[in-house]
Amino acid sequence: MLQQDLLQERPSVLIVDDIPSNLELIEVIVQSEGFTVLKAYHGHKAIEIFEELKPDIAIIDVMMPDMDGFQLCNTLKELAGKRYFPIIMLTALNDKESKIKGIECGADDFISKPFEPRELIAKMRSLIKLKELHDELEHSENIILTLAVALEARDPYTRGHSTRVGDLSREFAAFLGLSVKDQEMLKKAGILHDIGKIGMSEAILRKPAPLTDEEFNLIKKHPIIGEQICSPLHSLRDILPAIRHHHERWDGRGFPDGIGGKNIPLYARILSIVDAFDAMLSERPYRQGRTYFEVLSSMRREQHNGQWDPELLSYFIEMASVMDEGFFSLESLKNIYQE
Ligand SMILES: [Fe+2]
Prior knowledge:
By secondary structure, the chain is α/β, with parallel strands linked by helices. The longest helix is centred in the middle third of the chain and has 37 residues, at about 115-155. The chain folds into two domains: about 1-135, 3-Layer(aba) Sandwich (Rossmann fold); about 155-335, Orthogonal Bundle (Hypothetical protein af1432), CATH 1.10.3210.10. It has helices at about 1-10, 20-30, 45-55, 70-80, 95-105, 115-155, 160-175, 180-190, 200-205, 215-220, 220-230, 240-245, 265-280, 290-300, 310-320, 330-335, and strands at about 10-15, 35-40, 55-60, 85-90, 110-115. Helices cover about 55% and strands about 10% of the residues. It is elongated, with a radius of gyration of 26 Å. The two termini are about 40 Å apart. Bound molecules: fe (ii) ion. The site of fe (ii) ion has 5 residues, from loops.
């Protein structure tokens, strides 16, 4: 408990070395600079400490019995997942081979033995600064994602829409064989696609009758506003085109830019299908929601009407119609719509 309290106040460093005298030397150096020290004499203990105490940085010796420094570096990076966890590796002087191997395992920096204490501290401080920036960025991204979900919660007809579009877009990306990174990006794009509606009046968003030209022109600005809201975040830069173009049409008659065909970015073409699918399934003030099968057959009928990429749409219908084919089951799709 006391150790956990200390960890919250000072940056904590996990030092991993099988030779006690080496480990203690580093301990003295980093402790004198105000870091909290967590020690492990082998990789398995280091993993335990990492999971339990979530240190800010690790210094790992390359040469260790059982699990060597490279394996440990790999494992810690995997466990950290999307969270940034900096690792400095201790190598022998001029050991080029180890450095290359270390980079392949995700190491962030190296210190050669015998090392200069000031060099070690300077490297640690700069990596911890980088980690703080990463954490801050993640925090900002979470705020925007939360805002998007909160925004639609004010309207009972759209509640859950963005989350469902995010989930389903990710499933669709997996079905299409896109990379895990693409799947994650599409999930974020799905959650954020309508965030540009944030400044728009509820009276227009909830209007039970068709919109006037003026109202429609206002609504048409939401993809651009959404793109502007998300643009300061570097981590969202890959999904900006998806947000901007999710209302473009395959025949070029959409908005805001009126681009068509494959000029519309792939993420946006995917979102446009999933967005429409969810909207048709959901109840709207001016229209009752349709059943799952009605929506699918209506999309099938409209496959070549110019709204969507017809090839992508056929894949979507295939995914949505298939039961337990490995990627996606009809049951799990239905579950998304039972919330
Ligand atoms: Fe939209």
